[in-house]
Amino acid sequence: xxxxxxxxxxxxxxxxxxxxxxxxxxxxxxxxxxxxxxxxxxxxxxxxxxxxxxxxxxxxxxxxxxxxxxxxxxxxxxxxxx
Length: 82
What we know:
Helix content is 46%, strand content 5%. The protein is mainly alpha-helical. The protein starts with 13 loop residues before the first helix and ends with a helix.
């Protein structure tokens, strides 16, 4: 499934929905640090906070050359609370 997000609207594809679901599972698991973070766009995010899932989906949209499943595997390693 390399580079599944090359499609113009990969978020609405079956693979995109699976990626969103995998990120949501991480966000719901308390053993991962998935706090929301600052985002400068006050129009889209009124409180200047973007949640974990949206932040990583946005990153995958901006970087279509990434393998999304490897990216998620790296996110799991980086956000795991030890």
